[in-house]
Amino acid sequence: MTFQEIKNYKEFFMSIQEKIIEQIEKYEMIIIHRHQRPDPDAIGSQCGLATIIRESFPDKKVFQVGSKANGLAWIAEEQEIEDKEYEKALVIVVDTANTPRVDDSRYTKGKMLIKIDHHPNDDAFGDLSWVVPGASSTSELVYDLTEASHGKMQLSKKAARMLYAGIVGDTGRFMYDATTPHTMRVAAGLMETGFDAAEINRQLDDIAPAVARLSAYVWENMQITEHNAAYIVLTTDILEKFELGDAGTAGIVPLLGKVSTVKCWTIFVQQKDGSYRLRIRSKKPIINELAKEYGGGGHPLASGAMIKDDSSIKEFVDKLDQIAAGDIGEDNDK
């Protein structure tokens, strides 16, 4: 058997985690990207992985890139790098379902590209792709990758804090269906490093006074359809009144779902160009196929989409109402 045949044989039987770890060990320059408009899991998994690699392999250069994340600097912050740094780099994209959502288009300029994600794999990009839609979060997968390294990659208190923030954020404080027994074991493993978990929980639960006032507006003005789909339209005028932009609306997304009769809901957030960003959520009916109809996608119970103007709002709400009625979609328990 030739050397190449032995190499191919070994690679065939390697797990995807082992292949990713092998590439992390191989490259001296590693650049990690995440999705646009990041949430705690995007920041937590990106910067948590960067911290783990940086601390485990001190001789490597490791960067976390992307636009400024409003309100999440307490988890970690991005770094600025020059284009030339990509020439010999391993690029890892975390928590990003499809290429249009990758923050910073330079992710294609590296020598190798790896995708690590927990969204449905509708866009299977990357030379290596590890996608587990059943995972609670990409932060959970980063923890699993660290465990699979058998000591090559070390989990510090600093990194564990970031990953915990990502898991708590994406599970809605362990409330959503993707929370599994494994998720709870991972959270426990992270907490054992000794960071202040209660402080993270408080940070994710706190809202600014402006968001509190907007929450009152949402409760007062939300609409519920015949079959218990709910929605609220937030125009730029409304957001200016509350001194908030699009990023400031993240804290009100769960509110409509707190109404006991509501099955699924959407927050319509107007952008400066007149288009609307749609934050779509559900308790049971599947809503990501509806999101795809409007140029979006995501998880079965948590997705996003865009519409060009308010002329499409009624059409979308009618379809959401049909999903709530059971005409479209399916129950997760089936």
UniProtKB/TrEMBL annotation:
DDH domain ranges (all copies): 30-167
Signal peptide extent:
none
Record-annotated DHHA1 domain positions: 252-324
Name of a matching Pfam family: DHHA1
InterPro entries in alphabetical order: DDH_dom, DHH_sf, DHHA1_dom, Oligoribo/pAp-PDE_c-di-AMP_PDE
What's the name of the protein? Phosphoesterase, DHH family protein
